[in-house]
């Protein structure tokens, strides 16, 4: 399968975080290469809670999203990101965009602002998660 350049790096990350289980910390407390991703829980822009473990056995793309970032703007303004999201989802991947900007910091958006940006950008993400602690 052929993906745009931006997707190649993201799909490589998916291979690294393959979801076969969630016991990922070594005895030193660090995640080890080739081990499953650590579980996390976050609410999306509509208030629904998502756990990474909910998607066990599926490919999951984690996209860190900051609508003020010029690189993010480039890929969303060109339609490249939306196309990549749609292609990945069509092949069965779950696409979780994560806004990890704390309140008062650059990139922070309320759930309402996030939903407006999703609509404006025609995002094809499965969900946009809000990490308001940054």
Q: What is the rounded distance between the termini?
A: 34 Å
Give a count of the beta strands, DSSP E runs of length 2 or more.
Answer: 5
Major pleated sheet: 5 strands, mixed
β-strand amount: 15-25%
Helix/sheet category: alpha/beta
Strand order of the largest sheet: 2-1-5-4-3
**Helix proportion:** 25-40%
Number of helices in the DSSP assignment: 4
Task: Give a written overview of the molecule.
The protein has about 130 residues and is of the alpha/beta class. It has four helices and five strands; from the N terminus they run H-E-E-E-H-H-E-H-E. The chain has helices at about 5-15, 70-75, 80-90, 110-120, and strands at about 40-45, 50, 60-65, 95-100, 125-130. A five-stranded mixed sheet has the order 2-1-5-4-3. It starts with a helix and ends with a strand. The model is unreliable at about 5-25 (pLDDT under 50).
Search tags:
134 residues; alpha/beta; five-stranded mixed beta sheet; 4 helices; 5 strands; 16% strand
In short:
The radius of gyration is 15 Å and the shape is globular. It is 31% helix and 16% strand.
């Amino acid at each position: 399968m052929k993906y745009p350049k931006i997707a190649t790096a993201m799909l490589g990350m998916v291979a690294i975080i393959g979801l076969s289980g969630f016991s990922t910390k070594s005895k030193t407390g660090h995640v080890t290469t080739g081990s499953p991703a650590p579980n996390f829980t976050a609410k999306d822009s509509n208030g629904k809670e998502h756990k990474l473990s909910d998607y066990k056995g599926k490919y999951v793309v984690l996209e860190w999203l900051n609508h003020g970032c010029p690189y993010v703007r480039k890929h969303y303004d060109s339609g490249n990101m939306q196309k990549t999201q749609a292609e990945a989802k069509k092949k069965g991947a779950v696409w979780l965009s994560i806004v990890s900007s704390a309140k008062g910091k650059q990139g922070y958006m309320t759930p309402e602002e996030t939903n407006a940006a999703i609509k404006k950008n025609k995002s094809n993400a499965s969900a946009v998660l809000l990490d308001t602690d940054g």
